[in-house]
Amino acid sequence: MDTDYFKSHEMSWGTLGTVRPFPNFHPDRDVMEIQSALERKDAVTLVRILTNRNNDQRQEIVKTFKEITQKDLQAGLKKALSGEVETLLLELLMPPLEFEANRLQQAMVGLGTDEETLLEILCTRTGKQLQDIAAAYSYLHKKDLEKELKGETSGDFSKLVLALLHKESVSAPVERDIESLSATLNGKKADVGPWIQILTSRYPEHLDKVLMGLELQCGQVVNEVLEKKFTGDVRLGLKVLAQCIQNPNAYLAKRLTSTKAAIVQGVMVAHSEEDLLCIRAAYLKLTGTSLYTALQKQFKGDHLQALLAICRAED
User: Taking a C-beta distance cutoff of 8 angstroms, is the pair 298, 257 a contact?
Assistant: First the structure.
């Protein structure tokens, strides 16, 4: 893994994450402790260290481990651990761009496509972030992300996915956009073109006003309008996109109600240094239960302890 490549393509992380830089960080000390833990197959120590360092610090640990031991830390984890805790700790060792590129690749590999994971990443990341993720995807997998998405999708859904990949922010009058979307709803089946064009080419704040105005005009929430007027994958795509425009934290909180470990840890790792505190608050509002408590009911063992460490606290 070329860590210098990823350092030159970093995302801008926010300050509402649960994982912060570890104070008094000494990578050489961590490496010695990790090396000993690997020999003992001591998952508790490995979880404690790797979940209490931010990603930049973990990259420093990976580099220092190689320098001191002449061995690969990821390979060491694979030998010492197994199951979901192994997967989670390996994900924590990936730079953010590599992690998101890997999630996209996993969503398209094998039989069938995980459309909602594709949509989660494409709808919640900015155009600039998606450019960087696409560059990381090409670097890691030696394939063009746009071509891969074209091969995995079809019809109007494909048009939506590709428009999301190349989303931009163009200024336009709010009222004109409301009228353009409203005009598509007159027939039995709505014209998807203006929805794709407008919802993938405006600022989020602008689009929130557009969807609010449309709801007032129609007398229905956007989710109901989309449910009635569209079908298939493009309906799912537009519904996810609308949710992410109106309340991305609520959408991601809903994703965390999944019973699938890959989905839960995918969201938690991806947002641990960015806005997981906001997603936690949205989860509590959505379910009436804190994420911390919900994790304890669903997972167990070292995997649970790692997830709890990323979550950090009760709400």
Answer: no
